[in-house]
Design brief:
The complex is a heterodimer of chains A (573) and B (114).
Chain A (H helix, E strand, L loop, with lengths): L9 E6 L6 H14 L4 H21 L9 E8 L6 E8 L26 H9 L2 E7 L2 E9 L24 H10 L14 H8 L3 E5 L4 E3 L7 E7 L2 E4 L9 E4 L4 E2 L1 H6 L6 E4 L3 E7 H7 L6 H47 L14 E7 L7 E7 L4 E9 L3 H21 L3 H13 L8 E9 L4 E7 L5 E4 L2 E4 L18 E5 L5 E5 L1 H4 L10 H11 L5 H16 L8 E7 L4
Antiparallel strand pairs in A: 1-2, 2-3, 3-5, 4-5, 6-13, 7-12, 8-11, 8-13, 9-10, 9-12, 14-23, 15-16, 16-17, 17-18, 18-21, 19-20, 19-22, 22-23
Chain B lengths: L1 E7 L3 E10 L1 H16 L4 E5 L3 E4 L1 H16 L3 E5 L5 H8 L8 E2 L2 H9 L1
Parallel strand pairs in B: 2-3, 2-4, 3-5, 5-6
Antiparallel strand pairs in B: 1-2
Helix pairs in contact in B: 1-2
The chains are: A alpha+beta (573), B alpha/beta (114).
Chain lengths: 573, 114
């Protein structure tokens, strides 16, 4: 195809030289024509011509044609000389130039008519140009079509980074082509319009080149124009943000901006060039005063609008459904959060009626639902069970695991007052069917509130802090692995006697490991400082002060980890 | 690819061809078309409005059919959608001058009865 310059969009394909393959070749050509924005009527011509060329080659090519695949090559598009596309078919059949065959004489009536030779007639009539050469032992037959992409020679391009050279020397050619091919009547809107009137109306209109990524319309923008996509690809985004799920694809020959040009309100959508696009810009006045009055334009506009509305509705339905699902999920999550919270003794302080012990908890999950837990309840009139734990991970899985831990602990604590055997049983139970590989660090113990004797066990949890007056110590911990990770583990227990006036602070590492902007953890030292400062105050105030301390330390209300505390104090006498 | 027919009274046979009359498509319906037009009816109306594609091989089959109808003293006409590629094929080959072509069944039926 010597007529075409080099830097032109091209596509290649090959088929076996058999009648059964012609359909595949047609499908291929149809799809590349769509891809390269060849107007439908021109694409039809190319596909019909291809059928005739292939039939000729296969029927008359002898056995030689079967010896190698038939090669197909497409070149062209709207950018080429203002609209040109061609196909070259190469085959290994006997050398034969069908273009030298005298064109069949038109029959005057049916009696005269003979069925042969029609293919060549079609080829000559449907193609705007034909070319044959024999090279490298193959027949190369080219055929093609031209159309006028630009409505009028006076059309000027807005200079942009993507300016092409195609519009330079071809003005005259385009003018000729425009007359021959009825200008841009391939655009559905103008299908039925009179070509001469259409050309007059479009004289002053501009063609914009939009490089990929550039916006044509933005939400809130005043728009005085109706645009028509000539080539390339635009997306309109519902809601005005570049969300691929909310994109409505605009196809060549479709209108853009007609709604804002109808009601005069600012554009509601974001319209972006997804690929380099060429857009015909029609001034609002030209559109309503002149174009809409042309034959069929109003009707075609309605069809286009309806089609767009339908596509947009479908998209909106999907978004709406997803939105509802999300809303539903959020509601479920909120319910789960409430349910989880209701399982923990969040009333503050706990056991306000008892004078022999002061107990208070605090919990703030980092996300809606967390994996931290604590519990405190009397198993008999003088024995308080306490525990605090931290499930690995966050989210729903962690919270479900936490619910399981709490339930089992309550059951086990009512059974035995041996914290080590509680942890052993809990560990084995949690290991059964723990497909999620979650585990929990846990501290638990029984406090005799009369004597102050605390018998406790630990499964990988951080050591509670004991505070009295100026003295602060960490509770010595017995050995014990985190719970739920491996079955058959043994746990030990230790005893500590909590003196009157002493405070035991259990916490999760979300408190001590909360990091400041510079990465410094709040640390046990941070807790100790505040415990000293607020030693004289009720536990409720102490825990609030600790929480405030953590928040001001990290410099944000958004916690990285759940923040949970349980404090127990024996009143001084 | 499909071909079907209905008879309207004793005079007219309507034949509807849909799909693609390319090499493959024509192969699959040509014999049926030949059989359908061979039965003695006064007129045959071939409805091509459902046809997507018409290559020269399909036009050959239509010409062969029209000649057969004419030989037994009948007439054949075509119904074709405006602005279709099928109409383009028929016009490019000038067949519309040999087999009358209409955009609606009513006119096509009147033509074969006249």
């Amino acid at each position: 195809m010597t007529a075409l310059p080099d830097a032109v969009a091209s596509e290649e394909f090959s088929i076996a030289a058999s009648a059964a393959e012609v359909r595949r070749a047609s499908d291929w050509l149809e799809s590349v024509c769509r891809k390269h924005c060849v107007p439908q009527e021109k694409a039809d011509r190319l596909v019909l011509s291809l059928n005739e060329v292939l039939e000729n080659a296969i029927v008359y090519g002898g056995t030689a044609v079967k010896s190698s695949p038939v090669g197909l090559r497409f070149e062209g598009g709207p950018e080429l000389e203002g609209g040109k596309a061609g196909v070259t078919v190469s085959d290994s059949g006997a050398a034969f130039n069908p273009l030298t065959v005298a064109e069949k004489k038109q029959a005057r009536n049916l009696e005269e008519a003979t069925p042969g030779g029609l293919g060549l007639v079609m080829l000559h009539r449907l193609s705007d140009w034909l070319d044959y050469r024999h090279a490298d032992g193959r027949n190369h037959l080219s055929f093609g079509v031209r159309w006028a992409e630009i409505p009028h020679a006076s059309t000027h391009f807005r200079r942009g980074p993507d300016r092409r050279t195609a519009n330079r020397a071809v003005g005259q050619e385009r003018r000729r082509a425009a007359r021959r091919d009825h200008g841009i009547r391939w655009i559905a809107l103008f299908r039925d319009a009179d070509p001469a009137e259409l050309e007059r109306a479009l004289v002053e209109c501009e063609v914009l080149l939009l490089p990929a990524g550039q916006a044509l319309l933005r939400p809130g923008m005043q728009n005085q124009n109706v645009f028509i996509l000539l080539s390339g690809k635009l997306n309109a985004y519902i809601g005005g943000v570049e969300n691929p799920d909310a994109a409505i694809e605009i196809l060549p020959s479709e209108c853009i901006g007609e709604l804002s040009a109808i009601d005069g309100k600012p554009s509601s959508a974001l319209v972006l060039a997804v690929e380099d696009a060429r857009v015909l810009k029609l001034d609002k006045e030209v559109f309503w005063r002149r174009l809409i009055k042309l034959q069929g334009v109003a009707e075609n506009l309605m069809v286009t609008l309806t089609e767009r509305m339908r596509r947009s509705n479908e998209k909106a339905m999907v978004l709406q459904r997803e939105h509802l699902e999300l809303k539903h999920l959020k509601k479920e999550l909120e319910l789960a959060r409430q349910l989880q919270a209701s399982m923990l003794p969040l009333q503050r302080p706990l056991f306000p009626g008892r004078a022999d012990i002061e107990v208070c908890g605090f919990m703030e999950p980092a996300s809606k639902i967390g994996g931290d837990l604590f519990d405190a309840f009397f198993v008999d009139s003088r024995t308080l069970f306490i525990c605090i734990g931290d499930v690995s991970g966050h989210g729903i899985a962690a919270s479900l695991f936490m619910v399981r831990v709490i339930g089992l602990l309550r059951m086990l604590a009512m059974d035995t007052m041996q914290p080590d055997s509680i942890l052993e049983t809990l560990n084995d139970r949690l290991c059964i069917g723990n497909d999620t590989n979650l585990f929990v660090t846990l501290f638990c113990g029984f406090l005799d509130v009369q004597s102050g004797s605390l018998t406790y066990s630990n499964g990988g949890h951080c050591a509670p802090i004991i505070h009295k007056g100026r003295e602060v110590t960490l509770l010595p911990l017995p050995k014990g692995m985190l719970v739920g990770a491996a079955s058959g583990r043994r746990y030990a227990c230790l005893e500590y006697v909590l003196q009157p006036g002493e405070t035991l602070l259990c916490y999760t590492d979300g408190v001590t490991e909360a990091e400041s902007q510079s990465g410094k953890p709040f640390s046990e030292a941070g807790c100790v400082d505040l415990m000293r400062q607020h030693a004289a105050r009720p536990l409720l105030d102490l825990l609030d002060a600790l929480h405030d301390g953590v928040v001001s330390h990290i410099g944000s209300r958004l916690l990285a980890d759940d923040c949970t505390m349980l404090a127990v104090r024996r009143p001084s006498f | 690819m499909s071909i079907s027919h209905t008879d309207v009274g004793n005079d007219i046979r309507r034949i509807v061809i849909s799909g693609r009359l390319d090499i493959e498509g024509t192969d699959s319906v040509a014999a049926k078309l030949e059989a359908l037009v061979a039965e003695p009816r006064k007129g045959v109306v071939v409805d091509l409005t459902m046809l997507q594609f018409l290559a020269s091989i399909g036009i050959r089959a239509l010409i062969t059919g029209a000649k057969a109808v004419q030989k037994r003293g009948g007439k054949m006409s075509l119904v074709v959608s405006d602005n279709s590629s099928v109409k383009m094929s028929l016009e490019a080959t000038g067949i519309n001058d040999l087999i009358p072509m209409f955009d609606n069944t009513g006119d096509a039926e009147r033509a074969v009865l006249s």
